[in-house]
Automatic annotation (TrEMBL):
Gene3D superfamilies (alphabetical): alpha/beta hydrolase
Protein name: Acetyl xylan esterase (AXE1)
InterPro entries: AB_hydrolase_fold (IPR029058), AXE1_dom (IPR008391), FrsA_esterase (IPR050261)
Organism lineage string: Bacteria, Pseudomonadati, Planctomycetota, Planctomycetia, Planctomycetales
Keyword field: Signal
Domain Acetyl xylan esterase residue range list: 108-292
Any Pfam family the entry gives: AXE1
Source taxon at top rank: Bacteria
Organism name: Gimesia maris
Signal sequence bounds: 1-22
Length: 701
């Protein structure tokens, strides 16, 4: 700490900095320019860590030389993948029903419903050839079409397969078609936030990408995300396919586009029944997503996968040497073609090591993102080769007629959630949490405080204070006010993201050391006459800090998440990238809080520390509670305001507001927020103005 800062602490400051006479400006960090202005400092720091993870994975990949190496790698990746999505439940009866039948030229369609979870139904269309069975069966998971399985491109892909002797099952994903999970009471003419697209049903309000991620927000505290449920839908759909007498269970394929390409990749990696696969407009290396568009919606991000070394290429490597065709578009602006070819080269080398180089291929349509006719024909020919042992060319009829949404409808109302007895996946999650609540209660009643604290630390990933390096605190300016000074500080911890802070120093110190954390930024209560001044006037030393993704470190305008309808906050990409690296924003912020509190506790002397009062408002409250629970000796009082009362509310509520940033993966397997209050010490924790999970938090300026 510099001499000027020390002198001001004890009221001996006799020289006023020239900056004090200027108009007050509480900004600390210099204005961002170029790439930093677009992506923000926090994302750039996480991006650097992601690149380090990519380099480590590449080194591991290059060390795979023999078939035995390949098989060991595959097992390790599959085990990790299953674990990170939360595993799969036991299979329950499908209870399938055929709702209606349609006739096409050379094929027929059955509208079907079956249960992937008890009381939770999948709406699907089964396209069957007019030729004599048995047929191979091809699963077609949908991409992000608002009307799901009724999208013309997916219909045409299925019709092409059926007209060439293969059955195709196309089903609505959650949050699309007839399976939206977040419905409004009032009808909507357009999706919320715009007037460009009409929803497939008047009660639908959010884009499918937003719904997928809202469901991930519900699932993350349980140790899973939307991927688990979407993969399970696909596996249960294969169960339905193979249950049909017309289908040859030994000849199953899978192809899907965009978000359906994601699901095709997941399903082909984890379900050994998929003999031939053709993911479309998804396969690229993760580096190209991180560097250009950022992580995509909820189900496309697996917890810790980048830190572990699991890239998108690994979904293809996991299934080798089963036949896989990579389908891509030259002009795909999301899943970059350069990354696709890099992925294909990895796959080709891996398949070659296993002795089956010919079983992985690639086609590139000179077209933008989408299940274009070239890619539909390519996928159909791949299935024709590997499921029917035929090499005849397959071409789609120009302007192939398709059915209307109403003709393909399976539910009574047009939305299965509105039909009698339907159970939403949020209700499924709530039921899972209720079971975990009993386990948590038993754990906390039978475990001593020290062991419980260790378990919370293990789940949250928050490092012990002694393991956190001391950051640099650099003074960059000062402001003089009546009776106190404000020092502008830049805090630079080892993670590399500079954190702006304001240190309020009374001329006569006679009160507490207060760490003030406002979800709207350090400046919110820093004006003359505001809450911080009231503390300083009574002799408190106050450090107001912007932790990561707060105030000056928050992204002001993220143009790439318009699909989120504002439900996920401005820092979605930071949260998602941290999640991919196996961390939560709660963890990152809690560590920022710990190093700042340590600095404040030692502000008079490192030999004799003083406990700190922490006041946290809005989305800083949960990280502050974690910090106090894990390092209770550092804090004398913990004042929390506008904090949600339980993650259980997040789990069961379909339409949450800006709660992704508050989640910790798998926390509810061990603890909930009230348990942290117990660890921090109930006598020193005060919670006021509890927040609703559906209301805007204090981070919204």
């Amino acid at each position: 700490m510099n001499r000027l800062l020390l002198l001001s602490l004890f009221g001996f400051l006799s020289v006023v900095s020239p900056i004090a006479n200027a108009a007050e400006d509480l900004t600390v960090l210099p204005a961002l320019e170029g790439a930093a202005a677009e992506s923000g400092l926090v994302y750039q720091a996480l991006q650097k860590r992601a690149h380090e993870a990519f380099a480590k994975r590449k080194a591991v990949y290059e060390n795979i030389k023999t078939p035995e190496d390949c098989e060991a790698y595959q097992k390790r990746m599959k085990d990790f993948f299953r674990t990170q999505i939360g595993g799969f439940p036991e299979r329950t009866p499908l209870n399938p029903r055929v709702i209606g039948k349609l006739k096409g030229d050379g094929f027929r369609v059955e509208n079907v419903i079956y249960e992937s979870w008890p009381g939770h139904h999948v709406t699907a269309n089964l396209y069957l050839p007019d030729s004599k069975p048995p047929y191979p069966g091809v699963l077609v998971p949908c991409g992000h079409s608002h009307n799901g399985k009724a999208s013309a491109a997916y219909q045409r892909a299925c019709i092409l397969l059926a007209k060439n002797g293969m059955a195709a099952l196309c089903y609505d994903p959650i949050g699309q078609g007839e399976r939206y999970q977040v419905l409004s009471e009032q009808p909507n003419e357009y999706f919320k936030g715009g007037s460009r697209y009409r929803p497939p049903h008047p009660r639908v309000q959010y884009y499918c990408t937003a719904e997928h991620t809202l469901f991930s927000v519900s699932s993350i505290p349980l140790g899973s995300n939307a991927a688990r449920y979407r993969i399970w839908d696909g596996m249960r759909s294969i169960d339905y396919l193979v249950s049909r007498p017309e289908i040859d269970a030994k000849r199953i394929g899978c192809t899907g586009n965009s978000g359906g390409g994601t699901l095709a990749s997941y399903i082909m990696a984890l379900d050994d029944r998929v003999q031939a696969a053709a993911p479309v407009c998804y396969s690229t290396m993760y580096r190209y997503l991180i560097d250009f568009n950022g992580p995509q919606d909820g189900e496309q991000n697996i917890f810790g996968q980048l830190a572990y070394g699991m890239d998108i290429a690994d979904y293809t490597l996991m299934r080798a040497p089963k036949p896989t065709l990579i389908c891509a578009g030259t002009l795909d602006s999301t899943f970059k073609i350069d990354g696709t070819w890099e992925l294909f080269r990895e796959a080709k080398r891996f398949y070659t090591r296993l002795g089956y180089a010919e079983r992985v291929g690639i086609i590139e349509a000179d077209a933008p993102h989408g299940f274009t006719i070239q890619l539909r024909e390519g996928a159909a020919r791949w299935m024709n080769r590997w499921l029917l042992n035929k090499e005849n060319p397959i071409f789609e009829v120009e302007d192939q007629p398709v059915f209307t949404d109403e003709e393909l409808q399976c539910s009574q109302s047009g939305q299965i959630l509105l039909d009698a007895g339907e159970r939403s996946l949020f209700a499924v999650n709530d039921n899972l949490n209720q079971k975990l609540a009993a386990e948590r209660a038993a754990f906390w009643s039978s475990t001593d405080v020290s062991a419980a604290r260790d378990k919370v630390r293990e789940i949250s990933g928050i490092q012990p204070l002694g393991s956190l390096p001391r950051p640099e605190f650099k003074e960059v300016g000062s402001i003089s006010r009546d009776g106190y000074q404000i020092q502008k500080l830049i805090v630079t911890p080892d993670h590399g993201t500079p954190l702006p802070a304001l240190l309020f120093l009374p001329n006569m110190r006679q009160g507490d050391l207060v760490l003030y954390l406002h979800g709207g930024g350090k400046q919110v209560e820093a004006e003359t006459g505001a809450a911080i001044e009231q503390l300083v006037k009574q002799g408190d030393v106050v450090l107001a800090l912007d932790v990561r993704c707060i105030g000056e470190t928050s992204r002001k305008n993220n143009r790439r998440i318009g699909w989120s309808h504002g439900l996920l906050g401005p820092n979605y990409h930071e949260c998602a990238l941290a999640y991919l690296l196996g961390e939560s924003m709660v963890k990152l912020r809690a560590e920022d809080i710990l190093v700042a509190a340590r600095f404040l506790s030692e502000i008079q002397s490192k030999k004799k520390t003083n406990p700190v009062v922490v006041t946290a408002i809005g989305e800083t409250a949960i990280p502050a509670l974690h910090a106090a629970a894990l390092e209770p000796g550092l804090f004398s009082k913990v004042n929390l305001s506008q904090m949600i009362t339980s993650w259980g509310e997040v789990v069961k509520t379909p339409e949450t507001q800006n709660q992704l940033i508050n989640t910790v993966h798998g926390a509810l397997k061990v603890y909930d927020l009230p348990n942290l209050i117990q660890l921090a010490g109930r006598e020193k924790v005060q919670v006021t103005l509890p927040a609703s999970v559906t209301a805007g938090l204090a981070s919204q300026e």
